[in-house]
Amino acid sequence: MPFHNCSPYLGRQTGASSDRGMEVGTFACWQPRRGGFYTSAKSRVAHRPHCGVQAMGNGARIPEDQDDNFMARQCRSAAAAVVAFGMFVAPYIGTDATMFEASAAYLAGEERRTVDLFKKNTPAVVNVTNLGMRQDALTLDILEIPQGAGSGFVWDKDGHVVTNYHVIRDAIDVQVTLSNGKQYMARVVGIDREKDITVLKLNDADLTGVNPVTVGSSADLEVGQKVYAIGNPFGLDHTLTTGVISGTGREIGSGVADRPLQDVIQTDAAINPGNSGGPLLDSRGSLIGVNTAIYSPSGANSGVGFAIPVDVVKSSVDQIIKYGKVIRPFLGISFATDHSIDQLGVQGILVLKTRQGGPADKAGIRGTSRDDLGRLSLGDIIISMDGSKVRTATDLYRVLDKCSVGDTLDVEVLRQDSQEHLSIVLEGD
């Protein structure tokens, strides 16, 4: 005798007959009707649940009895209960969904601060496009085309914009695009090649929407503090990346000058091609550096980025705006490379040559020379400047960066087998 099971929890029923094997159908195929239970049109077997009666053939019908009526009433009652339950629980489920949506829109305190920092500083960040000239092969017209792009930021209300020198190097014209989409042509006010800094000036009397960045300080930066970089990596304008200061006092090659960039900030905030010239901000939204380089074999972010400290930037920018150039103090000497000095076993800066009439020449510094017989006579070896030990070119540049034109330096040198102290008055280069 076949057994049938309909489960509203499983939502399926199984049916079996002695000659056809097992059949499986959905719960909805079974329709309680007055006069008995009917199958769907596809079935040839009608069953009365929990009984031993069956009828064969299309439209098979089992006579009505009290059990059938009772079962039909039970099914109708169950269906009504399910509907009622659904009406009861639906508002509750809807309330939960609403609560979930509300919680998804909620921002934690740190997230809120990051969002506010980005919104506040976005208007100060610009896209800098380096425009070059190209002649059309067909019309022979001279076309102005983009040949490079980077980032920058508004320095003041007068429309000065700061970016890296390498961003606009060899540019015929420079175009600056604000966060609101407004575009300006800009002229180069001046450059500081040694610090990889350029100051631009927007060529427009209408500077509506120009919002300068808040300039901070890089004097007391600490490893581990949070930083935020905004720029245009790969042309994706106004992209925010976050990280921490990973190191300070780093030295890297600038790629545009003979001397390295010193005391740069290292960060793990993602810096990619196009970020150059953009601002590095602290958690207060103040400028602490200018993103300038990444260390990466592939050319993409590898978690090691570098920024020029804002105190260095400020010194250069102020002079460029005032004089159109950076007036940097100089000694007027050329000296041996660190590698050559190491090979000679010298502890200091070996002077090879002095500029005639320059500060070092006036102070009596001697360069390397040869006598009439071709014998080499080493020049003075600078071992200290203003009380700071000098062993490498980095040490020398670090001392000079702290000086101004007109300052007098106490320089200690090794000359043959003796030590001498000389006073050098620094001049502007």
List the total number of helices.
7
Strand order of the largest sheet: 8-9-10-13-12-11
Helix residue percentage: 10-25%
Instruction: Specify the structural class.
Output: alpha+beta
Family: Belongs to the peptidase S1C family.
Domain PDZ: 320-394
Keywords: Hydrolase, Protease, Serine protease
GO molecular function: serine-type endopeptidase activity
Structure description:
This protein has helices at residues 66-105, 109-121, 165-168, 310-323, 338-344, 359-363, 393-401; strands spanning 5-7, 12-17, 21-26, 31-33, 36-38, 45-47, 54-56, 125-135, 142-154, 160-164, 173-177, 183-192, 197-202, 226-231, 239-252, 261-267, 279-281, 287-294, 305-309, 329-330, 333-335, 349-354, 369-370, 376-377, 381-385, 388-389, 408-415, 418-425, 427-428. A hairpin with a 7-residue loop joins strand 14 and strand 15 (239-252). The N and C termini lie far apart (110 Å). The chain has 429 residues and is α+β, with helices and mostly antiparallel strands. Mean pLDDT is 78; it is low at 1-60, 85-95 and 140-146. The protein contains seven helices and 29 strands. It is elongated and about 80 Å long. The protein folds into four domains: 1-106, no CATH class; 120-202, Beta Barrel (Thrombin, subunit H), CATH 2.40.10; 226-323, Trypsin-like serine proteases (Thrombin, subunit H); 329-428, PDZ domain (Pdz3 Domain). It has a six-stranded antiparallel β-barrel. Pfam families: PDZ_2, Trypsin_2. One of its GO terms (molecular function) is serine-type endopeptidase activity. This is PDZ domain-containing protein.
